[in-house]
Design goal:
CATH topology: Rossmann fold
Shape: globular
Strand order of the largest sheet: 3-2-1-4-5-9-8
Largest sheet: 7 strands, mixed
Structural class: alpha/beta
Distance between the termini: 46 Å
Helix content: 25-40%
Length: about 220
């Protein structure tokens, strides 16, 4: 990447730009159409501490907090503009300006639910497993991991189109498999959606799909 690491590139060139580019979409957020919130309710979870990685302005975290009594919500987000906006709109959300490879402000096994929404696909491959390790560290045994990311029938590396000054990349793959392969997480739910229309999608238009996956962490379930 012309000697610029992808992490620094996204912080410097894309974090605020992404928020400003998508702000109008975020303002139209409704919790009734949020599959993440629906999953938490459908599985009758009662989270007390929820972390969202890549929380933007905290709209989803605010919906979670107002849906579950006594729930504390935390969001880590690289965009300072998103956080400044979110603090004004959602004062009940605890924001952290940072990235997922450093969750040192959070204690081990402190989260009941961790949500990772459209983050894995832009993480620098050099720090990918550091991010995975940090997520695993803060999620308690028996906790829930929800991943929202682009669906891919195979692993793909694409040029990231929103950064023009130098090469940055996106990486599409089924990220739930990274966790289930460890035998420390097992799959509870996975659905595939049309990215443009936000509806369930069984077509062969793999380019415009994303998946929502719910995993449960259980460090002893696979060992008999």
């Amino acid at each position: 990447m012309n000697k610029i690491k992808q992490k620094e590139a996204f912080i410097d060139y894309e974090a605020d730009a992404w928020f400003n580019r998508n702000k109008s979409v975020l303002l139209n957020y409704t919790k009734e159409r949020d599959r993440v919130l629906s999953l938490i309710k459908e599985y009758k979870l009662a989270p007390k501490n929820v972390l969202e990685i890549g929380c933007s302005a905290g709209y989803r975290l605010n919906a979670i907090k107002t849906s579950f009594e006594g729930c504390s919500v935390f969001g880590i987000e690289p965009s300072k503009e998103a956080i400044n906006y979110g603090k004004q709109q959602y004062p009940g959300v605890n924001f952290i300006n940072g990235t997922a490879d450093d969750l040192s402000s959070m204690e081990d096994e402190s989260m009941d639910v961790v949500v990772v929404g459209f983050v894995f696909y832009v993480i620098d491959r050099n720090i990918f497993f550091k991010v995975v390790a940090e997520i695993d560290r803060v999620l308690k045994n028996g906790g829930i991991l929800i991943i929202v990311d682009f669906f891919s029938e195979t692993a793909l590396k694409n040029v990231y189109q929103h950064i023009k000054d130098f090469s940055a990349f996106s990486f599409k793959q089924n990220y739930d498999e990274v966790f289930t392969a460890s035998k420390l997480y097992y799959l509870l739910d996975k659905s595939t959606w049309n990215h443009s229309e936000k509806v369930l999608d069984a077509t062969d238009n793999y380019y415009d799909k994303y998946s929502v996956t719910l995993l449960k962490k259980d460090i002893s379930a696979s060992y008999k």
